[in-house]
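User: Please predict the structure of the protein below. I'd like the answer in structure-token form so I can feed it into my own downstream comparison script.

Assistant: Understood. Taking the following sequence of 294 residues as input:
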Amino acid sequence: MEHSAAHYFMKSVNFVFGIENQRDLSMKKSRYLPVLTVAGSDSSGGAGIQADIKTMSALGCYGMSAITAVTAQNTVGVTAVAGIDPGIVAAQIDAVFDDIRPLAVKTGMLYSSEVVDAVAGSLGRHHAGNLVVDPVMISTSGSRLISADAVEVMVHRLFPLAVLVTPNLHEAVALTGESDPGAQAQWFFSHGVDSVLLKGGDSSDSRSKTDLFFRKYLPPVSLVSPAIDTVNTHGTGCTLSAAIVSFLARGFDLDSAVAAAKEYISAALRSGANYVIGSGHGPVDHFHALRHDI
């Protein structure tokens, strides 16, 4: 039986807030659903590891992080960036895997070639499963967040480890040199990627936003949602990839995880449009389901 994306999203909301599958509080032991984000820190809390952990928590998972860089930013832009020592980045990943093995992993801002190399080496050594790579290259405000040589390392070392890569329109063009989505997908397939989600949130279409989900040897799937009139779009890419790994950790297959994550980010954008924070691009409402429940 096929279910809509909304079905999977509401099933997740019900799970998180106890409408169904309630825990037996008399049980002495329960298990968290650990998920790891390997990404940069956003001091304003709207993107990066802060957005990731909020998303993971909202979807019933236990968020963990390995910080790759520290940014000084707000809703207006990025004013400073400092990379973390690659050995420390690898040590964070190793510490997590040695004690709390994650059910799914996502990468975001990786900053430098040395950090990418350290991340790929550590994730490969631990045979990380359910890896989603969000190839963060440029911030919403236009600031470059990764060096050119790091992109090459990411393509050749990290992409082949991933179950999914999630570039936005600009990243897909920058990576592939192609403007046609089908040609872009073929480029990813030729570089060891089996599934790619081409995000369309930055398109100029004022009526709807379409993400294209390409899987090797299968027909593409269009995920369409109404366009939302909002300036609060900071961290949407981070939030979407964090939602995907959260659903994967919950046991969803990749197709269902992508569809449910699309519903989650759409709902977060709709709810977040009603809030005013900062003077630029504010965040989405990660906890919209809980906020509307209380």
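That's the full token string. The chain has one domain: 32-293.
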